[in-house]
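Reviewer 2 asked us to include a model.

Predict the structure of this chain.
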Amino acid sequence: MRAGEHIRVVDLRKRYGRTGPWALRSVGFTIPRGEVFGLMGPSGCGKSTTLGIIAGFVTPDAGQVLVDGRDILPVPPHKRGLPMVFQDYALFPHLRVHDNVGFALKLRGTPASTVASRVGEMLRMVGLEHKSDRLPEQLSGGEQQRVALARALAIGPEVVLLDEPLSNLDAKLRQQLRRDIRDVLQRTGVTAVFVTHDQAEAFAVCDRVGVMFDGTIAQMAPPPELYRRPASMDVARFVGESNVFPAVVVEGGAAPVVDIEVAGHGTVRLPVAAADAPAVGQRGSVLVRPESVGLADAPADGTALPGRVERAEFLGPVLQATVAVGDRTLLVTLSSWGDRAVRGDQTWLSLGDAFFVPEAPAGAHPGQERERVPLDAGGAA
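Predicted model (structure tokens):
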């Protein structure tokens, strides 16, 4: 076990049926102690299967799950000490809040006074001490999820698993509860694995996120890096909206320059950032996030593009505009306090913070642009 390492997942593979599709092709990651690690991806990508294997609800075809250096796969789920917070709360409907939170403690034979003290501590932490005598049906969805979190943490675990815990809540409640969950996890210092399909949740709650497609992890990084420096166009599209241009590298190395093709306008030469130093002639795509596109009444330099505002939507803190450039449209996000965009305006666009993503190698699986471990028909490497 490496220093600071708490959980290590090694080459997990899972196939449902001998001829069925691979749910997991080769999944591995390491989580240091105290980190909130997220698994994010579309439905069917393998994130819930991975969490189920860690919890003990799913048996893998191959791989290891090590906690503090010990492989827990042979250990029954109820003896792993890894409580889970489910998306449907999974509270006992006939038990009051304090009995739900203290249930596992009582099962362990914990003295009544200790149970009462611990339950009170947990309910204060999630802000529900005044509702300890309520039944679950008397609580809102957000309150029920707070109870589920308190119950998971009551036994003092070192690791907690969260399976789409906010998916059953409305948008405003999700915003509040994701802040509460982050707060509670930081205060307790537990290591957490948080599964979600929602980018905002993953970015708000997690220290690092693994983005999954097609049974593999395409990229693992802190949220700002995932957003600003995606490893593939699949990751870029999944974690936010983008303006994407075909490009070819004309100056390589650490400070690359590319030519981008803007349909109906021509070629524009642009300095870019890149994860690796690309070679001259390498082809790929340039990604520019909507908030990195600026509007001006006059061209700032030779890279500015002429455009016409087709639509402008006021969204409170931001304006979202669609601007026609040549025969394509670009998405632009502006501050609603000072910037102006009115339908029909002629404008000039500047492209800032452009990032170059190389073409995927031929034969790569969707979402995974780097080489994967080959699999034979039986699932062994």
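The chain has a mean pLDDT of 89. The two ends are 23 Å apart (CA to CA). We have added this to the supplementary material.
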